[in-house]
Write a structure and sequence with these properties.
31% of the residues lie in helices and 25% in strands. By secondary structure, it is an alpha/beta fold. Strand 1, helix 5 and strand 2 form a beta-alpha-beta unit.
């Protein structure tokens, strides 16, 4: 495993410091597994290990910034562009990134990824549910206004791109009709939309490998070319 030598002290600080923003988040959300999954089990190492020199990572569904920080630790990653639509998660991501030495490599956006540019409201109680997505918010009449951009918007002008996606179902449509000639690897969590996503990626020349998980219909997809 080749990672920036600054990785070890940062991981130790996040894990041990009870006053760190990420530590406080884990207590509030009761999702302590996020740190374990990303930094210890390194669930995104497959994608990070594919990074060529001067790669840009587009992090879709960045939550509180754990994955953005993880990718930024790799020397071949020049830049991470992170998208997180939920205001609470975005505010925590902003704090997490501001206190780590990789912050200059990370660009953050409080927006969702969708097949079209649009704005929707998401109700406050739903925002706190990490399984709720911009896609599922259609019909909400109160709460925060969330804006979306398309995948074409997100990768426009970027070179040597890899994509991480965990957006609770929005991935079903946003690959369609997008020029991904600069994208060479994708690690994606799919949600009941595997045929659509697989078809769209294979049509653009990606070799796709799938690892089903529970519940049935969900899993991890790895694509490269």
């Amino acid at each position: 495993m080749i990672m920036d030598p600054r990785t070890i002290p940062i991981m130790r600080a996040v894990a041990k410091n009870p006053f760190s923003v990420m530590r406080r988040y884990k207590i509030v959300e009761e999702k302590a597994g996020c740190f374990q999954e990303i930094f210890v089990e390194q669930s995104y190492y497959w994608l990070a290990s594919k990074a060529r020199p001067n790669t840009t990572v587009v992090d879709i569904g960045a939550k509180i910034g754990e994955t953005a920080i993880f990718f930024a630790m790799f020397p071949n990653v020049k830049k991470v562009v992170a998208y997180e639509p939920m205001p609470f998660s975005y505010s925590m991501m902003k704090k997490n990134i501001s206190i780590n030495p990789f912050r200059k490599k990370i660009e953050i956006h409080n927006k969702a990824l969708s097949s079209v540019r649009e704005s929707r409201r998401i109700e406050e109680e739903k925002i706190m549910n990490g399984l709720y997505s911009f896609t599922k918010s259609r019909g909400d009449t109160k709460g925060k206004i969330i804006e979306s951009v398309t995948l074409a918007d997100a990768i426009r002008g970027l070179k040597n791109v890899i994509i991480k996606s965990d957006c609770e179902g929005a991935e079903a449509d946003f690959f369609n009709g997008v020029d991904m000639s600069e994208v060479y690897a994708i690690e994606l969590e799919y949600h009941y939309c595997l045929p659509k996503v697989t078809k769209a990626l294979k049509e653009q020349g990606f070799k796709v490998t799938v690892k089903p998980t529970t519940p049935k219909g969900c899993g991890l997809l790895y694509a490269e070319r």
